[in-house]
Amino acid sequence: QCPGIEPLCLDLADWDATEAAVGAAGPFELLVNNAAVAMLQPFLQVTREAVERSFDVNFQAVLHVSQIVARQMIAQGLPGAIVNVSSQASQRALRDHAVYCSTKSALDMLSKVMAMELGPHKIRVNTVNPTVVMTDMGRINWSDPQKSAAMINRIPLGKFAEVDDVVNSILFLLSDKSAMTTGSSLMVDGGFLVS
């Protein structure tokens, strides 16, 4: 559907492989960091493996890929935009989400620092913060009707997000229609955070 897009399949936790693959793929004008894992465990049962894997993918990979791409953007001398896919979980505690909530909170703050430091280079950085999205991962973690009903009851619009809800928000933040928006978090949560 998009002939100009070439997918790269790699383990983002492998910094050397990521550096080589992403570095060779440029130049870039836009970047969306969307890779994530959700290893849900009660706080008292959180494992070291869950912490390391979650921070490797949800935080460190975003930092590293963004560094590679931003350096290329700066070298080109052209404006750019980066959107990091965060979560409503960065702003609200959720049961069994201690690690996931923490990685997404860290991602929000990283994005603000990136916006501050990359702004002088005309690179905008924002996050989208969706509620549960009906992806494969969303369906796995929210397939229990009792668990999902409790969450949906807290969403004023009464439903989880669809992929297009998030995609359209990302497209807005990448576009010139948001030319004065940087360092912001766009909530795509059906009102969850106001309830």
Automatic annotation (TrEMBL):
<comment type="similarity">
    <text>Belongs to the short-chain dehydrogenases/reductases (SDR) family.</text>
</comment>
<dbReference type="InterPro" id="IPR002347">
    <property type="entry name" value="SDR_fam"/>
</dbReference>
<protein>
    <submittedName>
        <fullName>DER reductase</fullName>
    </submittedName>
</protein>
<dbReference type="GO" id="GO:0050038">
    <property type="term" value="F:L-xylulose reductase (NADPH) activity"/>
</dbReference>
<dbReference type="GO" id="GO:0004090">
    <property type="term" value="F:carbonyl reductase (NADPH) activity"/>
</dbReference>
<dbReference type="InterPro" id="IPR020904">
    <property type="entry name" value="Sc_DH/Rdtase_CS"/>
</dbReference>
<dbReference type="Pfam" id="PF13561">
    <property type="entry name" value="adh_short_C2"/>
</dbReference>
<keyword id="KW-0560">Oxidoreductase</keyword>
<dbReference type="InterPro" id="IPR051737">
    <property type="entry name" value="L-xylulose/Carbonyl_redctase"/>
</dbReference>
<comment type="subunit">
    <text>Homotetramer.</text>
</comment>
<dbReference type="GO" id="GO:0006006">
    <property type="term" value="P:glucose metabolic process"/>
</dbReference>
<keyword id="KW-0521">NADP</keyword>
<dbReference type="InterPro" id="IPR036291">
    <property type="entry name" value="NAD(P)-bd_dom_sf"/>
</dbReference>
<dbReference type="GO" id="GO:0005997">
    <property type="term" value="P:xylulose metabolic process"/>
</dbReference>
